[in-house]
Amino acid sequence: MSFDPVTASAADIKDAIAAGDLTATDVTRAYLDRIESLNPSLNVYNETYANRATERAAAVDAGQVTGPLAGVPIALKDNLATTYGHTTCSSKILSGFQAPYTATTVEKLEAAGAIVLGKTNLDEFAMGSSTENSGFQPTRNPWDTQRVPGGSSGGSAAAVAADLAAASFGSDTGGSIRQPAALCGVIGLKPTYGLISRFGLVAFASSLDQIGPFTHTVTDTALMLNAIAGHDPRDSTSADLNTSGPIPDYTAQLDTPIEDLRIGVAKQYMGEGNDPAVTAAMQKVIETYTDRGATIVEVDLPHTDYGIPTYYIVATAEASSNLARYDGVHYGHRTENPEDLIDLYAASRAEGFGDEVKRRIMLGTYALSSGYYDAYYLRALKVRRLIKNDFDTAFQSCHAIVCPTTTGPAFRVGDKTDDPLEMYLNDVYTVNANLAGIPGISIPAGHTTVDGKTLPLGFQLLGPTFSESLLLRAARMYETEHAHVATRPAQIA
Question: What are the structural domains, with CATH classification, of the chain?
């Protein structure tokens, strides 16, 4: 083949291997060499599996491993459990932890023939918006290494942006796929809650978490979704196919434009807090859809402003419950020479958890405590329902809603670490989709220049539950008009 495999799409890689134009071994080696060269400066991977990856590649070349993703090198966020390697959630409390089982998503990807290159860095236990909260090291944005890649799936987003994986996977609790996708200039999909099994995903907030892919193209996103979507009896929150209908082939109609497409625009997402470059980019996005025949519809999402406070009550409450198991007894870090059992619990957690995780555990415990449960947690659940109702009403008049993914481009490392509230506001355009359980996809929307560096911007398409096929087709309509969707950062090319 005439193309370089580390800059080729996942679809092109799997086709070239199937045609015999490339070997999976050569592709895997090319990615591993690039990781060895660039990972020290970007801190994308917590660990890589070179021997296992090359063995799997050889099995693909020998015809022993087949499937729709045969030979495609991928990366996993380090909160997806695997029986090989370690699963740390980028936390010292799980340093060296080996999971006793493999996540359903990973099993499906490997059954499809994908080759796992390694585990990527994240904000500790997926709690953060910049990957600066990692217990190991911050990940750097490939477009400007002085800036953050977003979070919490910053390592997975940066892996695709820097061509250190053909595709990668993260988790999205309040925007942790879409936000870093926007800041790193790649495509990131948060599926409908329940479409993807959460079995083997280390829990942060169980009613919000969802696994999804990062890619360079809409076609690749559809391929990855084909591989991982579907009911899993091991996950009680997994959508039952008997009631939700069969999982479609998400690649089937990608290039078929949506007739009479109605795109909703909510004034709540087009506020004064946006960087001027984001405002200009959104105008161009809307113009693109108008030029392609879409009708722009004004919609109202009146409870949007309550999204951040609602999310940071619901998410922290669930985190408080989920992280109670990390106590120095069941597994994970255990302090040395405790005075008694209480000291063992307290010291192990104090030593193992970082500041942001401790902050969220305390906030969640407070919200669930006697005397405050009704005032905070129960009220947040009621507002969550109102937010969902807003979307349900809006989707009666439009197929999808378009909005920014972030208020601006990537910010500098360290700029917001001293102000948790300012950091939380990075998720202002993403948390409501999680609260409502609806799907959202972030797509590159062009670039801006800051301090002489080119930085990417992103926009979102949000749709009703299980509307992934429609969102992918709508995203493809935009992609066909704009080559910048697959642009790589020139600084590391």
Answer: 5-260+440-492 (3.90.1300.10)
